[in-house]
């Protein structure tokens, strides 16, 4: 990969999209009001003054102090105030009553949706004593627990009951509470605990033997129903890395890969194979350094781990985001969310891109300014920003966005209680702002979109679609260079990234990732334009150098590999058996291609059988694993016999990605 001049207009559009995703947001108006000062005598202020300032920190300082822009910048930032959707006890009470009515009509899924709304909007214990005597949240959880019991979900029902007790629900003399707890344990299969809870119910009900008998009948009915209802939830975990443990220099990586190159190298630092890699090997399982959910999924996915929400847990103060568990909520509220909580709606209204949110998250999750500055050096060393090549107008927009985000941090007391309400930053605030500004530049080139597989029909592959739900930044994964024919396939489990090899890669060879433009889907000219303008480099990978055709234009037969050891020359596929005896024009040896042809036929058969196995219905996990093994063998065999591109092998590589993705973030809708 080599740096080149970009298409200025298209590059500008790409840059703008990484900063501001909505034209209608108020940040665009903020910029325009400031930019109006670049007229008349100040028309060249950006080029003659701003661009000549040597560092991000000093450029940020400049916009607060230079009279050309300072008045407009400070005047706007003074108006930054919290904007968020708070709790509403009356609304929660209304939703709870609706859920109870739906429960009585046996409309369980609708009742669950409404009960979740009641939980999310309910204020904490004692906040609004005029409604439910301050127990709105506890009663909302109590109601949702009953819905889960009716849905035979004892685990989530028990979690809600326990949380309701923590939120003030009276339990010491509450026989009904222990009756529900007994039902939860019966559904979970913990019969001993179910009996203990039933005894407590019996005591608190005044030793009512009739009521105890009814409860025991209910417990038995629930056990029978649970046994008759197949469980659809699957516990997923990160796969084991190939090789002997983790890599010492690449976070979350296998010991079978290593770093090569340097900052001075035109290709920068990049990943190569430290040992021969076969298809399907796990070479990276990396948790996100920072990750943010797209705003449109705030109501359906956990803001912390990106899990699909079933029993959402709310922030104590806002209704803007939800969490899948108390653990995720407490971790978020102890770190980043306490600074973002009251400003999320404001940031969404600004029209800023999700990359801006990730940049902010890199700061807020650190927790303190001192920690930000400590991490900032590492971030600058790891992620390229290309500040020296950035257009001054684009850089100024990012500086202005930094000022807005810095103001949100000031108001959220990230720097502690300030002695003034004025927006001018202190030296420490300027240093944190410089880290933010650097992140706003580097994320354009280093962020990864996090996706889930959405299954909308009975068949898990035929109806599967990739849905991008958020964006993450990964220190290890950022070291992989791009090629239009990647050597790895990327999947996710929560916010953790998993990289499997998709084809054999010999020791010492580059292990390439793909930044989006794949030769199968885009012609060379469009790929090159997108990469130049979005990532600022010219791709010189093999697919570009040889101008490989797209999938629908690939030839029926691939080029065969010269069987002479160490040669590897690409030879035309023989159209007749008599042409299989030939002389290689590279190694000058007489060769026979019979073995290559047979290996290619065997490879095609393995790949086809694996794909057909994926299409079978119903499809069990064991069959998926069997399909993976067949396709891995087929892909490996192809690499011995021929050179890419080859349609059946490419289909198998994409099918492998689908199989691995099915073991990660996969949800049925």
TrEMBL record:
SUPFAM superfamilies: SET domain, TPR-like. GO terms for cellular component: cytoplasm; nucleus. It comes from the Eukaryota. GO terms for biological process: compound eye photoreceptor development; methylation. GO terms for molecular function: histone deacetylase binding; methyltransferase activity. InterPro entries: SET-MYND_domain_protein, SET_dom_sf, SMYD4_SET, TPR-like_helical_dom_sf. Keywords: Methyltransferase, S-adenosyl-L-methionine, Transferase. PANTHER family: RE32936P, SET AND MYND DOMAIN-CONTAINING PROTEIN 4. This is SET domain-containing protein. It comes from Anopheles coluzzii.
